[in-house]
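name: query_chain
kind: protein
chains: 1
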Amino acid sequence: MQPAAAVTADSAFPKPKHGQPIEAKVDPKTGEVTVNEDVIVRYSSCVGCYSSCGNRVKIDRETGRVLGVGGNPYNPACAYPFLSDDAPLTEAYQSMSFANGKGNQLRGTVCGRGNATLDGYTQPDRITTPLKRAGARGEGKWKPISWDQLIQEVTEGGKLFAEIGEDREIEGFKAVHDTETPMNAEQPSLGPISNQLVMLGSRSDGRGNFSSRFSGSFGTINAYGHSSS
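structure:
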């Protein structure tokens, strides 16, 4: 077996025959860091659950493919003691090695669910394009459509399912964007017609800010977050 010191001393990053490319080398004695520019590392937050831990994503620069997901040593949910926000990235690399005793106290880790977010990202059945119903309700038939078509149909409305034999006229956003006319003159407490738009969002993580801003601008009070319900 080749000594670890000899491997560390290699100047060039070898092209991997198996597994992932090396993102960086850390000299075990001096702590000097040599970064592999072919690998991009981004420190972010995990959305595997609602704990909002940090994560650390490795990306292949040439292809943009996500190589792996791990813990974020800057996040207190991943490491203790954790790195200060102003700590250089070289120290983050050192913290995940055992150079100069760094790794003996500080290891950025993430749980099994956090690691599994990579599987969710690469899942072949993951929906990455809008789907439109292509059969009767509950029949489970769908077809992919463009984002432009989605925006057009949701905004304008119309007989959106005429091609499968449905004659129903569906109101679009424009039809219910009325903040002046009461929804029901006999029950003014229901508010304006715009309250007919109901938004049921998913978890927030930044998306909640977008949906609440949209619903407020549209003029509906019926905006709900999915959260843990």
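note: The helical segments are 4-9, 89-95, 102-105, 112-122, 147-156, 173-176, 207-218.
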